[in-house]
Write a structure and sequence with these properties.
cell membrane, 0% strand, Sodium-coupled neutral amino acid symporter 2, ion transport, Amino acid/polyamine transporter I, mainly alpha, sodium, transport
């Protein structure tokens, strides 16, 4: 969530934001409190007076970066919830199908708790380090290497999110066009080719919006995106009770019967195949609680990818009215609980509709059945939401690249356009040549998401929080969390690469 987006949600004071501020996080004897000379129509509260721990920080930056927040508690919950929810929700049913209901719930609970704990570490580090910028915390902790690690992780995560949005365009737009044209459509027509469509959408819709210098007005689409996902969840729950188990296999069964007839010309062979198919169908419609297979390795990365919101936490914290770490943790608790329920319901009812036949992108799985006008509306809503969200995701990627490579230089349109084109070209290449959205969820979840959720917050905390000794419970917990992050990242990446190698040697996807 960018700063421009959150600026749209400034609202008048309400009773929710009238609570007193807590100064507990800022009473450090080594950093004496000092009055800030800030000209304006309001005064700094005590917490904000103690927030700037660097005495050499420029006054201009103080005035622009650390002003009191104006966003209420409720709107901050909405902003953070919208930062959490995204295309990752479409892959959760696939994760449940390859872990089982019980194991999925265990993993979902642990990943959500770990994500909340990392936000706790991040907020304490921001208070101690005196910065609300993720990259700046990395620089304070580990110099240019920390800044590169933070910037690179945020960039990779945003590219993964943008790729997943464009995957939805690639998968869903041909189905919408096919439904709108009707049964007379030519299935080999170019306008039903997802690769062509995603490039056209990128060039004619996303690129013009992405070239604007200020994308703040597109913050309105964040609300649309969240509402689309809620609508999607309602439809998934409703359709669970409308779709009989196995009905999505009717077309596949017809094709299998034709193949069996060609391959086995005897009646005995055909009957044997039918009996096997019936037994397989009965087994397929039973929910499983623990599943272990070659695709189980994607579960943790998919879940981690779905809960990444850490780049948005500090900007939302900065805009929070009555800013305090305790208040921001309450915002995080409410947001994560709401998204936990939303994720669990979407995964559970999607899985109980298709069981082991759910695809890596749940919405595309419904193309196997005659969904009717309701799924055309769902697909259109999701397509509009993700298309208008891509320019917002491009904005922080471009800003990060500009800051790393062209820091201190004046704005230049040629550089602005060139970076935007390169980002879009690279992402389109991923979408066209990477086989499935599962691979994007898996790779980004195992690398960048693991860095943002596990490794960086704990590493920054260990380095920057000086008031706690290395033998304290808090530091030991952060060290264990850091180690677990490396275990998750290295283990998941190793298993995913092994699965890729095995799949390739077995004949591809």
């Amino acid at each position: 969530m960018t700063k421009q987006e959150m600026g749209r949600f400034n609202i008048s004071p309400d009773e929710d934001s009238m609570s007193s501020n807590s100064n507990d996080d800022f009473n450090y004897p080594e950093y004496p409190a000092k009055k800030l000379s800030i000209k304006g129509h309001y005064d700094m509260d005590p917490e904000n007076q103690n927030f700037l721990l660097e005495p050499t920080m420029a006054k201009k930056k103080c005035e622009t970066e650390y002003l009191p927040g104006t966003t209420s508690f409720g709107m901050s919950v909405f902003n953070l919830s919208n930062a959490i929810v995204g295309s990752g929700i479409l892959g959760l049913s696939y994760a449940m199908a390859n872990t089982g209901i019980a194991l999925f719930m265990i993993l979902l609970t642990f990943v959500s708790i770990f994500s909340l704990y990392s936000i706790h570490l991040l907020l304490k580090t921001a208070n101690e380090g005196g910065s609300l910028l993720y990259e700046q915390l990395g620089f304070k902790a580990f110099g240019i290497c920390g800044k590169l690690a933070a910037s690179g992780s945020v960039t990779m995560q945003n590219i993964g999110a943008m790729s997943s949005y464009l995957y939805i365009v690639k998968y869903e737009l041909p189905l919408v066009i096919k439904e709108l044209i009707g049964p007379s459509v030519d299935l080999n027509a170019w306008y039903l080719n997802g690769d062509y469509l995603v490039v056209m959408v990128s060039v004619f819709l996303i690129l013009p919006l992405s070239l604007l210098r200020n994308l703040g007005y597109l913050g309105y689409t964040s609300g649309l995106s969240l509402m689309c996902m809620v609508f999607f969840l309602i439809v998934v729950i409703y359709k669970k009770f409308q779709i009989p188990c196995g009905s999505w296999l009717e077309n596949d069964a017809i094709n299998m019967t034709m193949n069996n007839t060609i391959s086995h010309l005897t009646t005995q062979g055909h009957m044997h195949g039918s009996e096997l198919n019936q037994t397989h169908d009965d087994e397929m419609c039973k929910p499983k609680y623990f599943v272990f297979n070659s695709q189980t390795v994607y579960a943790v990365p998919i879940l981690t990818f779905s809960f990444v919101c850490h780049p948005a936490v500090l900007p939302i914290y900065q805009e929070l009215k009555g800013r305090s770490r305790r208040r921001m943790m309450n915002v995080s608790n409410v947001s994560f609980f709401a998204m936990f329920l939303m994720y669990l319901l979407a995964a559970l009812f999607g899985y109980l509709t298709f069981y082991g036949n759910v695809e890596p992108e749940l919405l595309h799985t419904y193309s196997r059945i005659a969904g009717g006008i309701i799924f055309v509306v769902v697909r259109l809503a999701v397509l509009v939401a993700v298309t208008l969200t891509v320019p917002i995701v491009i904005f922080p990627i471009r800003s990060s690249i500009t800051q790393l490579l062209f820091s201190g230089k004046d704005f230049a349109w040629w550089r602005h356009i060139l970076i935007t084109l390169l980002i879009l070209a690279f992402t389109n290449g991923l979408v066209i040549f990477v086989p499935t959205i599962r691979d994007i969820f898996g790779f980004i979840g195992a690398s960048a998401a693991a860095m943002l959720v596990f490794i960086l917050p704990s590493a920054f905390y260990i380095k920057l929080v000086k008031k706690e000794s290395m033998n304290s419970v808090q530091k030991i917990g952060a060290i264990l969390f850091l180690i677990s992050g490396f275990v998750v990242m290295i283990g998941s990446m190793t298993l995913i690469i092994m699965d890729w190698v095995h799949t390739e040697s077995s004949g591809g996807h």
